[in-house]
Write a sequence for this structure.
């Protein structure tokens, strides 16, 4: 029997096998399944399709971020499958991150049939529109019958399109099943479905108008978050052609003579204020750097946003919004923009180089381990072809500020959609599982503790994930906030410092991950160069001293820029 013969198979089997087959036709290659009874028909169907790799992850919260990591790394939706009840609620943090980070995801939740809803049936909650506005589409499929089964390919194409249309994001499909749940499952007949996502481009008249607005004016490009493939090439071409500096987050920074690598330090030292552009092109979300986006709030320069969908201007300072794909727009602008007169880009490049030398000198005199030096060592020593997955607190900020030279041969990911620390290790594991490539995680101790169960997944699947865990015994980032100065030390430590006294080496080893503590930078560099198996490297630092080191680095940058 096959999923294409509806007359002799159970409707639930026909529906789920056709759905799995249709999604595989469209390009689905990974399904993340958490064990459960009510989800049996979906789990069997997706696990039976040879084109889909199934990953079994016990904890639904971790499973959600595992699927998120797959989708972030691959750019293709991954499927999440769980049983009914609170299992579905545990997906919410990863759904929220996928929503804000614009990551395509298919959330497939099993449910009880209508007659068991609202009558205190076990493992039953209200799952209709469970994720609210966080999803691009929410659909309750209804109890499978022949009509529902026949419509499975159409539903698959609709859900796939919704996840990949701009802005990309998560889709929720809810499936109520009646017992019996376990039936023989065979792959569905091919449906020959296709989906092609085009680029949103500016009309010719708007492109001409934008080119005229930029021509002859001191322009600065500011890019935040992750960008689609093609952004680096198009940005490098346009910025080089018109001699425009590009200040980009570490997640989307690219090798180019126009790329400014120390934008955060330049902004905090006042360089942006002293050398303001006439117009700013903002791409994607606001930058990781607080000094940069604080300057954006105060500058008198004209600000335009370039994005293919949605609204990402929390600063409220944009005066014009262009709705188009940034990479396509930059490519289309080639030859249409006249450079500004003078030495606009060379001045930025010289200041960037000067700040780099000043901070490198300070780092060379500071005792190791310290957190900026750890971030720089991770950046410089991670092998080519590896992905760095950075925690959303201090690690991504230290990489953004102190990584130095641009490396186009490695990728960098971070959960900067909703900016939470949760799910870091699970997402990194999913990123590695998506294509088998090594991942180096730069994490704080709280990020590791928050997602410690993911260590078991990494060990069980033998993923090439190396975790560099900076253990400053608590919440180091809070020391940079006003609370650190306004609260009594004991109150601050209780509510924000949150010392835990745990050994991350011991925790990793308990989950089957090889671990060790290092105190020497050469040991860290050696361990990173050989990063091919599950491992954790713990490095202990001091939260209080970390604040002082950052102050010394920023002071050195400011002194170096006095001549400008």
């Amino acid at each position: 029997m096959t999923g294409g013969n509806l007359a002799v198979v159970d409707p639930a089997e026909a529906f789920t096998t056709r759905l799995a087959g249709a999604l595989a036709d469209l390009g689905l290659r990974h399904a993340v399944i958490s064990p459960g009874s009510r989800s049996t028909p979906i789990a069997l169907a997706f696990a039976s399709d040879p084109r889909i790799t199934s990953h079994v992850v016990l904890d639904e919260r971790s499973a959600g971020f595992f699927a998120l990591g797959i989708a972030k790394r691959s750019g293709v939706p991954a499927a999440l499958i769980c049983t009914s009840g609170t299992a579905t609620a545990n997906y919410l943090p990863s759904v929220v991150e996928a929503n804000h980070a614009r990551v395509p995801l298919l959330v497939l939740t099993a449910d009880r049939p209508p007659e068991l809803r609202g009558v205190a049936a076990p493992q039953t909650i209200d799952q209709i529109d469970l994720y609210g506005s966080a999803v691009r589409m929410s659909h309750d499929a209804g109890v499978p019958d022949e009509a529902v089964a026949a419509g499975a390919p159409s539903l698959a194409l609709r859900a796939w399109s919704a996840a990949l249309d701009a802005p990309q994001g998560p889709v929720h499909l809810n499936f109520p099943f009646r017992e019996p749940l376990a039936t023989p499952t065979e792959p569905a007949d091919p449906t020959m479905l296709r989906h092609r996502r085009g680029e949103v481009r500016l009309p010719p008249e708007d492109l001409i108008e934008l080119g005229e607005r930029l021509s002859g004016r001191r322009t600065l490009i500011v890019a935040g978050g992750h960008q689609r493939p093609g952004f680096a090439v198009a940005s490098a071409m346009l910025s080089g052609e018109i001699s425009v500096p590009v200040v980009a987050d570490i997640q989307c920074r690219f090798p180019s003579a126009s790329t400014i690598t120390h934008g955060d330090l330049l902004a905090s030292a006042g360089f942006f204020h002293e050398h303001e552009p006439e117009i700013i092109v903002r791409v994607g979300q606001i930058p990781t750097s607080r000094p940069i986006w604080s300057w954006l709030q105060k500058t008198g320069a004209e600000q335009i946003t370039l994005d293919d969908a949605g609204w990402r201007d929390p600063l409220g300072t944009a005066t014009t919004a262009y709705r188009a794909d940034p990479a396509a727009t930059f490519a289309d602008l080639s030859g249409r923009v006249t450079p500004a007169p003078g030495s606009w880009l060379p001045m930025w490049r010289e200041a960037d180089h000067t700040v780099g030398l000043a901070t490198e000198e300070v780092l060379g005199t500071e005792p190791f381990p310290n957190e900026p030096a750890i971030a720089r060592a991770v950046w410089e020593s991670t092998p080519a072809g590896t992905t760095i997955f950075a925690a959303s607190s201090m690690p991504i900020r230290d990489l953004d500020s102190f990584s130095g030279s641009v490396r186009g041969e490695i990728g960098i990911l971070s959960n900067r959609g909703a900016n939470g620390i949760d799910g870091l290790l699970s997402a990194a594991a999913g990123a590695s599982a998506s294509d088998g490539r090594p991942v180096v995680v730069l994490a704080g101790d709280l990020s590791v503790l928050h997602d410690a169960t993911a260590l078991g997944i990494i060990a069980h699947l033998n993923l090439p994930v190396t975790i560099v865990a900076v253990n400053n015994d608590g919440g180091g980032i809070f020391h940079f906030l006003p609370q650190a100065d306004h609260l009594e030390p004991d109150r601050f430590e209780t509510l924000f410092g949150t010392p835990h006294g745990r050994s991350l080496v011991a925790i990793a080893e308990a989950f089957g991950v090889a671990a060790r503590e290092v105190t020497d930078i050469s040991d860290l560099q050696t361990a990173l160069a050989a990063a091919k198996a599950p491992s954790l490297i713990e490095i202990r630092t001091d939260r209080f001293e970390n604040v002082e080191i950052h102050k010394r680095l920023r002071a050195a940058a400011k002194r170096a820029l006095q001549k400008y």
In short: The chain is about 40% helix and 15% strand. The chain has three domains: 6-176, 204-349, 366-560. The radius of gyration is 25 Å.
